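Please review this one:
***
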Amino acid sequence: MRLIGTIRSTATERITVEADTYEQAREQLYAQIPEGHELIVIRTDSDTGS
């Protein structure tokens, strides 16, 4: 399961995490949001790279 979160401060950036479950990936995503940034979108990516 790969989640991609779009965060915002004055610039928009993306954070990508991978985990076995949505819940694990979401926890990882939130842990990577820098202070002062706001998570504005979470989406799943079903591309397995195969």
Remarks:
- The beta strands are 2-8, 12-18, 38-45.
- The chain has one domain: 2-37.
- The mean pLDDT is 85.
